[in-house]
Design brief:
By secondary structure, this protein is of the alpha/beta class. It has 10 helices and 6 strands; from the N terminus they run E-H-H-H-E-E-E-E-E-H-H-H-H-H-H-H. Strand 5 and strand 6 form a beta hairpin.
Length: 296
C-alpha cells in the first residue's frame, strides 16, 4: 500500500502503556475465547443479552480459545516495529475517515461521525465489556470505538497465512464498516430483532451484518484507491486471502474438523470474498444491502 503521503488520524487512542486489568472479564467467564469459538461467544452473548461487541462486533479472531496471551509463539514486535505499525494504523484510519466523510452524506444523506480507534496491549475495557487480545479487533456500538491489539496482525501472518499491509487495512476497514452500519441505524435494529429470534435465526442476521461490513470495507478501498492510488500489485490478493481465511466454514473445519452452517456468524469464505469484491467493484453503499439480497 502507498500511504506515505497520508496524514495520520487524530482519533487514535493509545492505551498500550496503561495496563489492562479486566477483573471478572466477560459474563460467564468466556473472555479468553478466540475466533475458532466465535459461535460459543455469540451464543453466550445471545443468552445473556450482552451488548453487540460479541453478537455483532465483528471480532476477527484466529486462535482456538485454548491460547492465552502469554502463550503466543511469535516474538513480540520491537518498539520500532510497534511505532511503524501505529503510524500505519493511524493512516489507514485517516483514509477511512476521509472517504466516509464524503461518501456517506453523498450516497445516503447521513453525516459521518468519526469512530476513535483504541490501541491496547493484552486487555482493556470498553463500553461493551472487557476487551482482550484473544478476541481480535472489534467495534463497540455503545461507545462507537474500534478496539485493536496490533499483535493480531502477526497472528494473521503466522497462523492464517493472510498477512500483508492491505490485508491488515481490510481488518480496520471492516470494523469501520460496522460503524457505518451503526450510523445508518442497522445495528440497533438487528440487535432488537435478535432478541426475538431463535439462536439459528439470530446467527443468520449476524452473518448479514458481517458480510455488509466486508462489502463496506470494499467501498472504502474503491474510493481510497481512486483518491490516493493506494493499491500496489498484490494488495487485492492479500485482502481477498484474508477474507477467505476468516470464513466460518474454514475456521470451523480447522478448529473441530467439521462445519455447522447454522452456527455461522460471519459467513463462509466464499461469501466474505464475494461481498468484499462487490464493494470494491461498485463503490456503492447500496450495493452492500445484504439484508434484502435474495441470496447472500
Amino acid at each position: 500500500m502507498r500511504l506515505d503521503d497520508i496524514a495520520e488520524s487524530s482519533n487514535v487512542e493509545d492505551r498500550r502503556g496503561q495496563g489492562g486489568g479486566l477483573g471478572g472479564g466477560f459474563p460467564g467467564g468466556r473472555g479468553g475465547l478466540g475466533f475458532g469459538t466465535i459461535a460459543v461467544l455469540t451464543l453466550v452473548g445471545w443468552a445473556l443479552g450482552i451488548n453487540p461487541a460479541i453478537l455483532i462486533g465483528g471480532a476477527e479472531m484466529i486462535n482456538t480459545g485454548r491460547e492465552t496471551i502469554s502463550q503466543r509463539s511469535a516474538p513480540p514486535p520491537t518498539s520500532a516495529e510497534q511505532d511503524q505499525l501505529r503510524v500505519f494504523v493511524s493512516r489507514v484510519l485517516r483514509t477511512n475517515e476521509d472517504v466516509w466523510q464524503q461518501v456517506l452524506p453523498q450516497q445516503k444523506g447521513v453525516a459521518f461521525k468519526p469512530a476513535p480507534l483504541v490501541l491496547f496491549r493484552g486487555a482493556t475495557r470498553s463500553a461493551c465489556g472487557g476487551a482482550q487480545s484473544a478476541m481480535g479487533p472489534f467495534y463497540c456500538p455503545a461507545d462507537t470505538r474500534i478496539y485493536l491489539d496490533m499483535s493480531f496482525f502477526e497472528e494473521m501472518r503466522t497462523k492464517m497465512r493472510a498477512g500483508g499491509d492491505f490485508a491488515y487495512a481490510y481488518v480496520i476497514a471492516h470494523e469501520m464498516g460496522h460503524h457505518i452500519e451503526n450510523l445508518l441505524g442497522i445495528l440497533p435494529r438487528v440487535q432488537q430483532a435478535q432478541q426475538r429470534l431463535s439462536r439459528r435465526e439470530a446467527n443468520a442476521l449476524s452473518v448479514r451484518v458481517e458480510l455488509m461490513a466486508d462489502c463496506l470495507a470494499g467501498v472504502w478501498a474503491h474510493h481510497a484507491n481512486q483518491r490516493w492510488r493506494i493499491l500496489e500489485q498484490g494488495d487485492l490478493e492479500e485482502a481477498l486471502a484474508a477474507a477467505a481465511a476468516i470464513g466460518d466454514d474454514r475456521l470451523q473445519k480447522q478448529a473441530q474438523g467439521y462445519v455447522v452452517p447454522d452456527s455461522f456468524t460471519h459467513g463462509s469464505s466464499e461469501q466474505r470474498v464475494r461481498w468484499l469484491t462487490q464493494g470494491l467493484r461498485t463503490g456503492r453503499v447500496d450495493s452492500c444491502d445484504t439484508f434484502n439480497a435474495r441470496a447472500i
